Structure formats: structure tokens, C-alpha cells
């Protein structure tokens, strides 16, 4: 087994465990929850086959749904995020993505925050739209998306900086 595969398996399991054992029990003001498991989708290797990312994202989302009893909303949101990931990468990193030369450990922090922010908002908007699934509650959907996104973005960027950035 190569090291990239091993790192991704460990990341998958750790993020799944942290999400279901810690983050699922955090609930600020009744509607602010962090969903840090999406870091797995953000940091998945660029050069890997896209189908593998889609399948891994589905599996991760389904595992979160099983532990959260949420009926598939996390799987749908995770697969959607994995599907739009190339667009997010291109809009955040531009030519680095075109040349397949993005290394998350050495990218500019602004590009990284842009990428994480766009992806988190997409994921959360889909997640809460499916969870609430009522157009008359659009303000609640937007409120949960906004505040949970801010919390998730801050945590995700901190985790990525702490665990992925090269030590200087």
C-alpha cells in the first residue's frame, strides 16, 4: 500500500470519528454545527481518479448519515461537493490547477481559504436544503448555511494549517 493511500485512509477514519463523536454533539444557538468531515474531500489528491473521490465521498457521507440518522442528506451533499470540486479548484487556484501542480501544504493561504469557503458554502447549502426541504423555510436554510459555514470554515482552515502545512 502506498503512502498516499494510507494517509487518505487514516484521514477518512479520523475525520469520520471526530465528526460523529465530537462535532455532531456541538450545537451552538440551536443551528450552528461544524461539519469538518468535508476536509477529506477538500484534501483528496488532485491527480487521483475522479470516480474514486465520488465513491469515497458517498461512503463518507453515508457513514455520517448512519451515525447521525439523517437519511442520506450528508451523502448527497458530500457527493455534490466532490462533483463540483474541479470548478472550485480552478476558481481558487487558477493555473496551478490547470497544471495539476497544487500542493495544499504550500499554497497561498488566501487561495486555500477561498477554496475551503466556496466548497463549505456549497456543501452546507445542499445539506440544509435537503434536511429542511421546505421553501417556506428559506431564511432558516440560509441562516443555518451561513453560520454553520463560518464555524466549519474556521475549524477546517485551522485543522488544515495545523496538520497539513509544511513546518518552517
Automatic annotation (TrEMBL):
The chain crosses the membrane at residues 5-22, 28-44, 51-68, 74-97, 109-133, 145-163. It is a multi-pass membrane protein. Keywords: Cell membrane, Cell shape, Membrane, Transmembrane, Transmembrane helix. It is found in: Cell membrane. GO terms for cellular component: plasma membrane. It comes from the Bacteria. One of its GO terms (biological process) is regulation of cell shape. Belongs to the MreD family. NCBIfam families: shape_MreD. This is Rod shape-determining protein MreD.
Amino acid at each position: 500500500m502506498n503512502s498516499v493511500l494510507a494517509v487518505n485512509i487514516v484521514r477518512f477514519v479520523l475525520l469520520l470519528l471526530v465528526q460523529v463523536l465530537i462535532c455532531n454533539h456541538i450545537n451552538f444557538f440551536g443551528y450552528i454545527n461544524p461539519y469538518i468531515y468535508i476536509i477529506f474531500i477538500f484534501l483528496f489528491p488532485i491527480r487521483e481518479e475522479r470516480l474514486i473521490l465520488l465513491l469515497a465521498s458517498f461512503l463518507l457521507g453515508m457513514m455520517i448519515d448512519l451515525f447521525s440518522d439523517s437519511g442520506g442528506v450528508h451523502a448527497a451533499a458530500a457527493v455534490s461537493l466532490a462533483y463540483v470540486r474541479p470548478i472550485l479548484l480552478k476558481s481558487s487556484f487558477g493555473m496551478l490547477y490547470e497544471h495539476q501542480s497544487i500542493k495544499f501544504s504550500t499554497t497561498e493561504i488566501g487561495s486555500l481559504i477561498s477554496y475551503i469557503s466556496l466548497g463549505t458554502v456549497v456543501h452546507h447549502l445542499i445539506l440544509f436544503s435537503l434536511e429542511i426541504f421546505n421553501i417556506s423555510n428559506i431564511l432558516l436554510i440560509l441562516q443555518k448555511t451561513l453560520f454553520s459555514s463560518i464555524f466549519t470554515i474556521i475549524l477546517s482552515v485551522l485543522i488544515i494549517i495545523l496538520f497539513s502545512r509544511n513546518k518552517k
